[in-house]
């Protein structure tokens, strides 16, 4: 089991979906024109989507509000984000979105304030919750 899975397993109040297939993950990446970070792919394969105390990650799910491809496409229309980034969380606080790139780095995007790196990995981000 990878670090990301161990980190997620330790979340309080964890609720998750069914793991996503590699085909569904590849299709979402193709739709966005990018590749997901290894840790994000591992999370998708195991959980598909999740929520826990203080966190609700995007994933592979039919619900538009939490589907990584739908949320990322919507944000791309609203603000400039690099083509190699995708939304891992809409914090629902002051228009803040959390993004990840293929290298696994985590960024915060807030309208009119740009994008800034906040963590080196998804495990670090989740562990901060």
List descriptors:
129 residues, alpha+beta, SMI1/KNR4-like, 4-stranded antiparallel beta sheet, 3-stranded antiparallel beta sheet, 5 helices, globular
Structural summary, described in words:
The protein is α+β, with helices and mostly antiparallel strands and 129 residues long. The chain has a single domain, classed as SMI1/KNR4-like. 35% of the residues lie in helices and 24% in strands. It has five helices and seven strands. The protein has helices at 3-9, 22-32, 38-47, 68-78, 122-127; strands at residues 15-16, 50-52, 55-57, 85-90, 96-101, 106-110, 114-119. A four-stranded antiparallel β-sheet has the order 4-5-6-7. Strand 4 (85-90) and strand 5 form a beta hairpin. Helix 1 packs across helix 3 and helix 2 (22-32) packs parallel to helix 4. The longest helix is centred in the first third of the chain and has 11 residues, at 22-32. The chain is globular and about 35 Å long. The protein starts with a helix and ends with a helix. The model has no long low-confidence stretch (mean pLDDT 95).
List the SSEs and their pairings:
Layout: H1 3-9, E1 15-16, H2 22-32, H3 38-47, E2 50-52, E3 55-57, H4 68-78, E4 85-90, E5 96-101, E6 106-110, E7 114-119, H5 122-127
Report the C-alpha radius of gyration, rounded.
Answer: 13 Å
Helix content: 25-40%
CATH superfamily: SMI1/KNR4-like
CATH fold annotation: SMI1/KNR4-like
Fraction of residues in β-strands: 15-25%
Shape type: globular
By CATH reckoning, the class would read Alpha Beta
- Cross-sheet strand order for the largest sheet: 4-5-6-7
Number of continuous helical runs: 5
Low-confidence segments: none
- Which structural category fits the helices and strands? alpha+beta
Terminal Cα span: 21 Å
Please summarize the sheet with the most strands.
4 strands, antiparallel
Q: How many strands?
A: 7
Q: Which architecture per CATH?
A: 3-Layer(aba) Sandwich
The structural domain count equals 1
Order of helices and strands: HEHHEEHEEEEH
Overall mean pLDDT stands at 95
